[in-house]
Design brief:
By secondary structure, the protein is α+β, with helices and mostly antiparallel strands. 24% of the residues lie in helices and 36% in strands.
């Protein structure tokens, strides 16, 4: 189970079953950097967990990084400024 201990004020989180949602769009809009908070969650992904990152754009460098860590990553464009990146254990 993914738990975030200290999220910045502009980061919204919620859980649905084994899926943890991390919405960093407001932080990005204000020029903030969500990398540290995203990676805190990525390092907690276990079997059956999913992390869904909500962003303003497709986070291509992050996709490459989590795949190099052996995790699966899938993106979906919700609208012009809303992308989701779903990260799970590979396999």
């Amino acid at each position: 189970m993914i738990e975030l201990t200290d999220a910045p004020a502009l980061v919204r989180t919620w859980s649905e079953g084994g899926t943890f949602h991390l919405d960093v769009r407001a932080l990005l809009e204000q020029g903030g950097e969500p990398y540290v908070v995203i990676m805190e969650c990525v390092h907690q992904i276990g079997a059956g967990d999913a992390l869904v990152v909500h962003a303003l754009f497709e986070p291509k460098p992050l996709i490459v990084q989590v795949q190099r860590m052996g995790l699966a990553a899938r993106t979906e464009r919700i609208d012009a400024e809303h992308w989701t990146l779903t990260i799970t254990q590979a396999g």
